[in-house]
Please model this.
Amino acid sequence: MRSLHRLRLSAWPLALAAACPSFAQTSLNPVTVTATRFAEPVESLPLGVSIITAEEVRKSGATTVTEALMRLAGVPGRQDFYGGGEYNLDLRGFGATADSNQVVILDGQRLSEADLGGTRLAGIPIDAVERIEILRGGGAVLYGEGATGGVIVITTKAGAGKDRRNAASGYLAAGSYNLRDARATATLAGGGFSLDAGAQRRTTDNHRDNFRSALDTASLTGQWANQWLRLGASYATDDLDIRLPGGISQAQYDANPRQTNRPNDWAQLRNERGTVFAQAEWGDWQVAADAGQRQRTLRSMNSGFAFDYDIDADTWSLRARHEASFGGVKNRVVFGYDDAKWRRDILGAFGSTATQHSQAWYVKDDVTLAGGTRLAAGWRSEDIAKDSSGLPLADGEHAWELGVSHPFGHGITAYARTGRSFRLANVDEFSFTTPGVALEPQTSRDHELGVRWVHAAGRAEARLYRSDVTNEIGFDPAAPSGFGFLGVNTNFDPARRQGLELDVVHAVTKAVGLRLNAALRSSTFRSGPYAGLDVPLAPRRSVALRADWAPAGGHRVSGGVNWVSSQFVDFDNRCTVPSYSTADMRYAYQWKNAEFSLGVANLFGRKYYTQAFTCVGGTTMSIYPEPGRAFTAAVRASF
Model:
């Protein structure tokens, strides 16, 4: 801990020097974000935001949202048990409970589940994505329960609300592991109306025995807009059929990482999403409303046992923003109401029903003084009721935040913020704990200091953060169950997350661009039986470095290196997932309206894994290997 304290004192000049190599270019490029629930420039925000654009995704060759977040934003990910290109992402070192401590938003709708089933992002068509924004750290005021680690906001091209034009594109790819990928998008626009449609079919044998997958997606959005009003509706579906190879032992991994112990396991995941939305502007007012309905079904076979469930979720929100000026002072206030219902029915002889209903109101006020100093304060009050087969859990929680930012010239803005975030145990957690012991709400005090530089050739941001978590909720394999065995969900002793994050996007020349995302983290328990030990599955360091080069007209070479440090599998910190580094490269040639590309992932054929969750006698077990070197050849035509 002493070394991390020294890091805090020394990291700022080092980070600023790396992020700001020269002050020669000071003409600012406007960058707008929507993670604040209404679009606004990023420069003065008193919080950290990372941005990935559709152009950056296309140049990288990323095929899923999760792959884009790992490659381009350096977010550590662990392979999901159900595969299909899905990974469990971890914004700020929450390990196995990361998905419960961050919120995912798609076109204004919350996708995060109220159980431990995970949030599926790989089913969102990558060609439909306009931008991905990562709100780092506590986002509970605007997004509520479970936003301590941050918020991932995904906006599709249709959902961005930009002027739509007639266009179409097609994509065909083939590659290693018998990959076949076909995509198509089309936009029809005229007279204020627009219709956006997209579809994808992707099949692959994947890199292990019994791991074949088939993904089908389709989406349709219709909308009408004039100068002050926008109305629309959208529907999307994604279907994943996949075989499940399961985890293997260390000895099996060393001998043959392709093998499986589960030759007959399989799963079918179905997701459907429907949304209606409206936005309006009247003078100094902006008003937005949306309502969504989502269904998710799982049918699966695991070691001869079926596990099937149906999920239904309904959300709606109403929010407004008002801007006013008083002399040299500008005031911007946002307030709103969120309502969400969620239900899961587990089928079969041992079926159960779980529900959740949350209602929340929030207000956030930003005052910008004549000198550019921005002061922000926000409050959220949320009532949450959960039930799992007659076992209830209900509570009312609140979140708050205070922030300040100040411009120092040359496009540099420094900011600070502090706040409180929270979450309650989800339906899988509070229904499996020591009898008679109720799980307390998890709370966190979150602090962040940052500096941002926006200039003509790019942008850079460095952040120091700390979150002190009380009553952290998770599965403790050493906790007594009351039934003669160990292992239940519990409230852990206080834990702390802290670290340094660095994001840099820089155009070295018109032909060469660089992107760097690096993080140094510490996720440790502060007291109790695990005092001083790392939270499992939370790597301490990660680096993602990418370059993009256009050597001549029509030619483009891009590639990157991702490195993630080792991480402990168990609470006793005896077993590890070894550190790993991967590289990827892509060459593309643009000829008229067609782009031909050849890409390779895991360029050097490294043998590694990102997911393991068992430690037996000091040996890491339940390993989920990653693929070796994989080539993809593709052609994209745009009209």
